[in-house]
Amino acid sequence: MGIKKRSLWGILLLTLMFMLAACGGGGSESTGGGSDSSDKESESSGDSGLKDTYTVASDTSFVPFEFKEDGEYVGFDIDLINAIADEVGFEIKLETTNFDGIIPGLQTGSFDIAIAGITITDERKKTVDFSDPYYDAGLRIGVSVDNSDINGIEDLKGKTIATRLGSTSADYIKKNIEGAEASQFEQLDQAYLAVENGSADAILYDSPNVAYYIQTKGEDSLKMVGELYQAEQYGIAFAKGQDELVSKVNEALATLKENNKYDEIYEKWFGEKPE
Description:
Layout: H1 2-47, E1 53-58, E2 61-62, E3 66-69, E4 72-74, H2 76-88, E5 91-96, H3 102-108, E6 113-114, H4 122-125, E7 129-130, E8 135-144, E9 160-164, H5 168-176, E10 181-185, H6 188-196, E11 202-206, H7 207-215, E12 222-234, E13 237-238, H8 243-258, H9 261-270
Parallel strand pairs: 1-5, 1-6, 9-10, 9-11
Antiparallel strand pairs: 2-3, 3-4, 6-13, 7-13, 8-11, 8-12
Helix pairs in contact: 2-8, 2-9
């Protein structure tokens, strides 16, 4: 009888061990499943490691790229960055500032992105990252309609030349035009006004802006002379360390060019499709 009892207890013990092993195995699978799910969530987060909203800095008076009209900021750059944001899938918080404050703002983290007709240069690449180029430009000269002395860059030697503060054109004047004084203004309207009132001999600035101003506000007071100087390309600027965002923006820009949305925006603001 003692042997039978011991056998019975042995069977019960073995049964209990099997039951515990089965439960333990089930717990392991469950934990493994939880880990897989967590890993997937992490991957998903990593694949779309972009923020929902980005602070985008822009200029205040660079027609037709960005300017205020009827209380809202409009222009080629504004439409383009909104189209890119829609394509990538993020919202924009637009901040406007003077042009010379844009790159410092990116460096300090006040802005994530900037679009403001910013010329891509090696010097600027040291402090910010750039997208692929989105606009080809250069420098043009504007003078008073009755000025017959200035017909090209060589005639600007020793002259007072209006331009924008912190722009590549200001650097160009200092480095390439002998004896010229770069009279720099925060607001472009002030630069054009300086030529119109005679306090500056000419304006040297980005070709699309000079052309647009002379075709509109300055139609009766200014004219363009000379050729297109120093070919330049505009890029969207980013605070450093946002490689994934830069890549996604470049992909979106390429898509907009492929599906003709870029052409539509370009034609809206420049009256013709890009070459």
